[in-house]
Amino acid sequence: xxxxxxxxxxxxxxxxxxxxxxxxxxxxxxxxxxxxxxxxxxxxxxxxxxxxxxxxxxxxxxxxxxxxxxxxxxxxxxxxxxxxxxxxxxxxxxxxxxxxxxxxxxxxxxxxxxxxxxxxxxxxxxxxxxxxxxxxxxxxxxxxxxxxxxxxxxxxxxxxxxxxxxxxxxxxxxxxxxxxxxxxxxxxxxxxxxxxxxxxxxxxxxxxxxxxxxxxxxxxxxxxxxxxxxxxxxxxxxxxxxxxxxxxxxxxxxxxxxxxxxxxxxxxxxxxxxxxxxxxxxxxxxxxxxxxxxxxxxxxxxxxxxxxxxxx
Length: 312
Fold this sequence. Notes:
Elements: H1 2-16, H2 20-47, H3 49-53, H4 55-83, H5 87-96, H6 101-104, H7 114-131, H8 142-161, H9 166-173, H10 179-199, H11 203-210, H12 216-227, H13 229-248, H14 250-256, H15 259-265, H16 274-281, H17 286-311
């Protein structure tokens, strides 16, 4: 119940509070909570000798899940593009009306420092856990983890509630654009299921981690809370790797279709992936990229509990 309660509180705050400083402090609190979460997750991995002994095997599994989620997301997005929603028509409409992301939402153009802060935090926690294994008990980290998780969920809810302008964006490009994130979600779930069957992993691990759709901090935190540190590692690594492989394969993805890079970026299109993907798909599709990221970022906290319960 923690995700739903905290998200509801955050959304109500985001909708009702008008003070700009409140959102600045909320953003800072979210960053601090993320850093604490990554430190605690890394610490938990380092403290658990059984996880460290199987870390290479876990890493290989995560690579397969991430690539599978990207591949199926691209496949279903490609079908949508070729049948119901040709992106070239949206490009023509936006260019004809001189509508660009730069004019509508300049804040989302900035690149997030979390790209390097998050991996650094988890590595620092990992090394600390290995070095201090004889001193620190894993139970000591639970209270810090819970507090950070609650703060993170509330801050995510605040950012969602504050995103009122999204509806006006929908009117510009048409509500059919929802089909793209729907295709990405479907592809991610099928990719998680298929990779789970290939790897002989429980589907609640592979499908839930794939359902994170590059929202690595929240997915890792949720799966750690639900299933423990070892399984939580999947949620984090799979979605970090999804962003990594999307960037790596961008020249190939853009040859498939304009929507393919957008499909790979998934929820990350709202922030860290927006700038690199825009460079490939063009400025006139940056609005579609942003909307896709916003929709999936809204959806991930609600989807994770449903997927994990369904496959458990």
